[in-house]
Amino acid sequence: MPADGETTSLRLTGARFRLASGAEVGPLDAEASARRIALIGDWSAWFRCLEGDAALIAGSAELDAAPLASALRGTRVALAPCDPALPLHWTFQRYLQESAALGGRSQRLAREATEAALARFSLGPSAGRTLGALSSVERRLLSLVHATLGAPRVLCCEAPLRRLNLPAAERIEAALELAAADAALIVSVDAVPALGPARSLVDRADVLLLRDATQARRLEPHELELSERLHALVSAQADAFERELLARGVSARRLGRVEAAFAYLPATEHGDCVRFALALPDGASIELVLEAARRANAPLLELVPG
Prior knowledge:
The chain is of the alpha/beta class and about 300 residues long. It has helices at about 45-50, 90-100, 105-120, 135-150, 165-180, 195-205, 240-245, 285-295; strands at about 10-20, 25-35, 35-40, 55-65, 65, 75-80, 155, 185-190, 205-210, 215-220, 230-235, 250-255, 275-280, 300-305.
């Protein structure tokens, strides 16, 4: 486990990057030192420079007090890129084991490290699957687990939730939390929704850095939008759920039954699979809705901005 308060640092001073395509990005100025840093927007040039696929052509760029382009040369910093190229005929286990061996371990130690990683992230059933047969969420998990093999003190994850549906994003978010238990974390998201796993990642960060079309800047938490209008779908106890919402000052309007959800529910619950439009009181959080669902024993199938 990292020592309490251990941080990593990111610094850009007039940094201009040239991508492999020849396009140039910057100049960018940003600075952060924290246990968890969230990068919001398009930070691909930063990740490509870290990976060695983009050049710093002006200014300076540092990660963890080292030049960005050489930060991965030791074992302190590791990168989980978004959807890297993979040897598609290799198995999940072989890919991890070969990577562990390239890090200097003997074959025995590489095998043990791989088995420990598969167990830690509950990926035993995926061990024998070929990489070409993996789903998008399994590929993201592979990239994350691969980055943890060397027990880095700083873990950099590029857009791990990009284009994933809600169950897949929740699975990646849980794996990230497990990985971040013993490493400082720098994670990027393309945008910040009002709800969901990407919002949770951002909300748990100590420092937010936003890159828009012209600059990079520090973003304060109060600048993030909080949706006061939501859609909720419950699979049972719709009447009780509505009563609990109203008791907490949450406006609730029934939008009707959701026929498409019936295929996943017992026939006895079909009458209560109902979607609601909700409006939170000023300044309230979604915890009011979650509490109402718990008190009503109403399973929430969906809770999204409305």
